[in-house]
Amino acid sequence: MDALSVQLELHRGVAPAGAEVCALVTLSLPPGRGGKLECLSLRFLGLERAAPEVHAALPAPPARAFTARQGHWWTRELQEVRLLLCGPCRLEPGARRRFLARLRLPPGLPPSLPSGRLVRRTYVLEAEASLVGSVGSGSGRGAGGGGAAASAPLHVWGGKGASLGVLDDPGEVLADAVEVPPANAAGGGSSWGALIAAHFAAPPPPPGGDGDTRDPTSPQASPRSSGRRPSGDGLMPLFLSPSRYRRPPKEDEEGGGESSPPASTSEPAASSNNFTVAFSGRPLAEVRLEGLRRGKEVVPGTVLGATLDFPRGGRAVACAAFEARLEALESSPLMPQVRATEEAHCHVSEDVSRLGRTFFMLQVPLRVPTSCTAEHVEVSWRLRFTFYVVPPDGGGGGQEVSLGWELPVQMVTT
């Protein structure tokens, strides 16, 4: 078993570009084992990987930035900052030292894109320590049992504005650190807020911050998320198809009403979040959305809700079932002929053949890529509905057909 132990904790696992990130590094030795520490360092590393077709479409100077090939991907370093926490020193048996590090992310840092199909972008913090005389101390994992390392992923949201020149210099990561006195480190009972306030000027909490005091605009401050069972990683679970309202809406009077637009378009009602979906000029569903900011913005970690009313009457089209998906679309401006790839982050489906009204909620994951536009990759979002209906008047041979309707949205944090 390794004699040296290193632990790494992050104040928050997600942060927008331009925010501060705090990490706590704990270095310890078991009782009866002493040694001389060579160094303890913290590294912030950002990697961007491009698929071969994207790399081939890049102009020569940007393409040369991707210098390594790892399997299917061309890889380049976006950021690499190493912060020395502690130099050579003597460690007594059972010694335990803690260091609080603070990193200021540049505002132009590109957002995380961990599961992209054209471009992938990840960030990680790594703490490495080694004892003098350990074999392979440069990697922090000495074969002689004197090295140790720990890492923690960091999900970065995009900063203000959806346009980012990713291939340009995103800016410099500023970092500093301080050792936490043993009195504060004992038992680890100090909260993150007290720890940061005691050693650094307390930064404003980014969206999705934890603690009892939450910004009302925070994704986790949504009243719909209260009382629900959190998942294992502390995030809210996907909530599929909650309560149903079997009371049908008031039927519209026959005739006298103007025809609705086709199913491929929507007509806002009194509110910008109310829409009418129609098929061949006949009403299919009234959609009322909740949780959108400014009518089109979605915040990671928030809850989206929708009420669907299915009109009754001779002019209405009967809906048998529907699906709703919150999708991220990834495309490359360098390859306009390539179809955008889509990834569904939330999904719900329901049989509504006997319902006049239904309601559902979608829990948006916290670690999702934010909308952005760059020279070689674009990420956009849409809320897509698919309605399954039997065409009126015997159209389509009486067979059930699917109708798609979508609403473009933006995934933002500020």
User: Terminal Cα separation, in Å?
Assistant: 46 Å
Give the strand tally.
23
Low-confidence stretches: 136-144, 203-262, 264-271
Strand content: 35-45%
Largest sheet: 7 strands, mixed
- Mean pLDDT, all residues: 77
Total of domains: 2
What percent of the residues sit in helical stretches (DSSP H or I)?
A: under 10%
Structural class by helix and strand composition: mainly beta
CATH architecture of the largest domain: Sandwich
CATH class of the largest domain: Mainly Beta
CATH T-level fold name of the largest domain: Immunoglobulin-like
The 3D shape can be described as elongated
Q: Please give the count of helices.
A: 4
Written as H for each helix and E for each strand, in order along the chain, the element string is EEEEHHEEEEEEEHHEEEEEEEEEEEE
Based on CA atoms alone, the radius of gyration comes out at 27 Å
